[in-house]
Amino acid sequence: MVAGTNFASPEVSHFPGSFFDGVAKPSLQRRAMEQWPGPSQIVAIWQRGELDDREKEAILLGASASHDPALLPLYLAAVASENPRLRMAAAYGYRDLLGDGLPDVAAGIDPAAAKRLASEIEAVRETLRARPLVEFWLQAALMNEDASLPGWRGVVIRRSTGICFRALEKIVVFDDFHRLAVAYRLAGDRATKVSLMSLLEAVAIQDFLVVPSDGTTGWGARDINEGFEATDAFLDHWLDQRCSSDPRQILTASFKALGVQGVDPLSPDAWEVWVQLLFRGTPPWRMMASRQLYQLGGRWAQLSLFGSESKAQIKARDDLLTWYRMQPAHLLNRQGR
Question: What is the average per-residue pLDDT within 151-163?
């Protein structure tokens, strides 16, 4: 099946441009995440030398949705290509792979720019051999306030905290609880701590920041301070008292607090619980519910935590909820990916 994978994708004809960004790319990336082989297999297929340039272009633009650094060698090779479209797709897809802001490549990537980008990709690749992508972006966020993760060695990308957290929301998983907790305790900037608190709510299925029911009344500094206090108490309990950051233990306790007992949160048995969190949860919970349901065989979607009220995100969530409403649970591949 892997050997016969067809990477040809009509969506690449719309690249680059706003139609590709808003319509064609989501279609391409959903197919990539649901039907294509995994990153290591894609690398092996590419290296066999049997793909044409259109297939390579599709891979560079589609497989970036996995945010897997194992694909970086493909972007490094493509940015040095003589094919100008491959260079453009490599520059765009590389940023997308990292979760970074997307560049405007409509004017092309000239050889000098390609050479500089290749040097950057190589440096980032070397860093990500030692540290995970989540830490790469946490370090970038902390550097904006002259702080640093313990023992950090490697390249640091200079980006606004907003870009850093938009990248982080795309890549965090439950195993990142301890990394986020370390960054939260190091952060001094109030806005940075609020963003980290929201990500901790996501990976722990907690509700630290209680927003008033109408979204405005009483909403202010006191609410944020109470959120910080709740976050600190939660971290003290797990990291200092229990000396644990095991995601299964944390999620089991969170499920119990929601009235769900006797279910392993990371097993297929938790399918219905995650569906309910997707339908009725807070934005952090919905983001992680969609991610976990995908791992259990559901549909791929990139739900946002920080931009959950945008028109594009509301549509993405509505489309995802409609899909789950239409799926008989017993027909889905709940053995997972």
Answer: 96
**What's the CA gap between 311 and 228, in Å, rounded?**
30
Q: Is 170:288 a contact under the CB 8 Å cutoff?
A: no
Render pLDDT for 270-285 as a digit per residue (tens, 0 to 9): 999 999 999 999 999 9
Please work out, in degrees rounded to the nearest 5, the angle formed at the alpha carbon of residue 146 by the alpha carbons of 145 and 150: 115
Sign of the torsion angle spanned by Cα atoms 34, 35, 40, 46: negative
Contact status, residue 163 vs residue 101, Cβ threshold 8 Å = yes
Contact between 292 and 274 (Cβ < 8 Å)? yes
Euclidean distance between CA atoms 138 and 168, whole angstroms: 8
Q: Amino acid identity, residue 24?
A: A
Torsional class of 138: left (φ above 0), alpha (ψ -120 to 50), beta (otherwise): alpha
**CA nearest to 99, candidates 192, 22, 166, 174:** 166
Mean pLDDT for the chain? Answer: 93
For the whole model, what pTM was predicted?
0.94
Taking each helix axis from N to C end, the angle separating 133-143 and 161-171, rounded to the nearest 10 degrees, works out to 160
Whether the predicted pLDDT of 291 surpasses 80: yes
Q: What residues does each domain of the chain span? A: 10-129, 131-257, 267-337
The answer to whether 231 and 197 have CB atoms below 8 angstroms apart is yes
Summarize pLDDT for 93-107 with one digit per residue, the tens. 999 999 999 999 999
How many residues make up the chain in this entry?
A: 337
- Alpha-carbon gap, residue 155 to 141, rounded angstroms: 13
DSSP 8-state class, residue 336: -
Scanning 214-331, the segments in alpha helix (DSSP H) are 221-235, 247-257, 271-280, 283-295, 311-326
Give the Cα separation of 218 and 189 in Å (integer).
Answer: 23
Angle, CA 308 vertex, CA 332 and CA 315 arms, to 5°: 60
> What is the distance between the alpha carbons of residues 309 and 199, in angstroms, rounded to a whole number?
17
Handedness of CA 108, 111, 112, 115 (dihedral sign): positive
Please state whether 205 falls in left (phi above 0), alpha (psi between -120 and 50) or beta: left
